[in-house]
Amino acid sequence: MQENIKVKTKPERCKECGLCVNNCPKQAISFSEEINEQGYRYTIIDHDKCIGCGVCYTVCPDGVYEVLGDN
């Protein structure tokens, strides 16, 4: 819930499994209408809703998410 935490994605790694979408406590993650190089719709984050909790990072089996903080 800190404003200085940001979540960054790597769309090319997403395989559209939906674990992050289904587990995000703030429903801040959805699927893009765009397709990545692997042929999957990748996830996008609504940064206005995202609280930087890291659930997406924890549940993602493909390393799509990176949680960044101010250093």
Automatic annotation (TrEMBL):
Keyword terms: Iron, Iron-sulfur, Metal-binding, Oxidoreductase
Alphabetized InterPro entries for the sequence: 4Fe4S_Fe-S-bd, 4Fe4S_Fe_S_CS
Keyword Iron tagged: yes
Main enzyme class: oxidoreductase
EC number, UniProt record: 1.6.5.11
4Fe-4S ferredoxin-type domain location: 5-34, 41-70
Signal peptide, first to last residue: none
Gene3D superfamilies: 3.30.70.20
Molecular function GO labels: iron-sulfur cluster binding; metal ion binding; oxidoreductase activity
Protein name, UniProt field: NADH-quinone oxidoreductase subunit I
